[in-house]
Amino acid sequence: MAAASGRVLVVDDSEAIRRLITVNLELEGFEVVTAADGAECLEVVRRVAPDVVTLDVVMPRLDGLRTAARLRAAWETAHLPIAIVSACTPADLERGASVGVDGYLAKPFDPADLIELVRRLRAMDRRPAAGRRFAYDFGSTGPSIPGRPVQTARDFALSEQSQELVPPDESRP
Q1: How far apart, in whole angstroms, are the C-alpha atoms of residue 172 and residue 165?
Q2: What is the largest CA-CA distance in the chain?
Q3: Can you state the angle between helices 111-123 and 15-27, rounded to 10 degrees?
Q4: Which of 170, 21, 37 is nearest to 109 (CA)?
Q5: Cβ–Cβ contacts within 10 Å for residue 54, how many?
Q6: Which one of 49, 86, 104, 164 has the fewest beta carbons within 10 angstroms of its own beta carbon?
Q7: Comparing C-alpha atoms, which of 6, 4, 152 is closest to residue 78?
Q8: CATH number, domain 7-125+134-158
Q9: CB-CB contact of 83 with 119 (8 Å)
Q10: What pTM does this model have?
């Protein structure tokens, strides 16, 4: 049974970050379950039935954005509030919005911001609605870039196209 504040699935390939997030959430009454990457997340999520999922972007086997897309594509997990907790690029944020991520918290983060994000996600209504906004505002509710086709969460999750991640201080060739 979930703790009074809810159950959070924390997904990050860094054990230190998983511990940091776990300690901060547990101090606020949340029950925390962890996974080391997106593939493990998909194995664990149905078993533990979390109220919120936090995902790092860059992880081995299955990155956070593809994990979010797969969670959105499956009817059993499509309703789960999902937050990206990562140091990511503007392109990652755009892709996150296109696959249905509900919030974003940049690393390094203030633990109080983490708690606030998880609380907002726990309280948000995930029923489909036109004009839905993010729990933490980091973009629009969907891709609306002229000339670029809309990619659904299912398309993104199933695509074989590799995703290049560029650190914010580097420019693309």
Answers
A1: 10
A2: 50
A3: 70
A4: 21
A5: 30
A6: 164
A7: 152
A8: 3.40.50.2300
A9: no
A10: 0.72
How many CA atoms, within 13 angstroms, populate the side-chain half-sphere of residue 152? 7
Residue 64's closest CA among 51, 54, 77? 54
Torsion angle, alpha carbons of 3, 110, 104, 44, to 10? -40
Q: Where are the domains of the chain?
A: 7-125+134-158
Beta strands in 77-124 (DSSP E): 82-86, 103-106
Measured between alpha carbons, how far is residue 136 from residues 43, 59, 81, 153 in Å?
27, 23, 12, 20
**Can you point out the beta strands (E) in 12-163?**
31-35, 52-55, 82-86, 103-106
Determine contact, residues 88/97, Cβ cutoff 8 Å: no
Q: What 3-state DSSP class applies to 105? A: strand
